[in-house]
């Protein structure tokens, strides 16, 4: 099958007018990151088009721990944020964050 996957067409249409919910965000990010298009995910995060959640952060973490950390910060998951600082070697940011 050539061309974009139907699910990606569906989500890109939604993104034009709305913010995706938690499940939609995760389901969109998985194939996009698998295709190596991290820049799209970064743009959607910057534009606040995705719902930031622990599940989204965990999904992104497999591809980019630093980007996952930014999602955890936005989702107010303190435990995941501290873990993210440790995993990315940013020990100096743990105490100020706490």
Most strands sheet: none
Can you name the CATH architecture?
Alpha Horseshoe
Number of domains: 1
CATH-defined topology: Serine Threonine Protein Phosphatase 5, Tetratricopeptide repeat
Total strand count, please?
0
Structural class designation = mainly alpha
Helical content class: 55-70%
Unreliable segments of 5+ consecutive residues: none
The percent range for strand residues is under 5%
CA-atom Rg in angstroms: 14 Å
Oligomeric state: single chain
Described by the principal axes of the CA atoms, the overall outline is: elongated
Distance between the termini: 49 Å
Order of helices and strands: HHHHHHH
Number of contiguous helices: 7
The residue-averaged pLDDT reads 91
Question: What is this structure, in a nutshell?
Answer:
With 98 residues, the chain is an all-alpha fold. The chain has helices spanning 6-15, 22-34, 38-46, 54-61, 65-75, 78-87, 94-97. The chain is elongated and about 45 Å long.
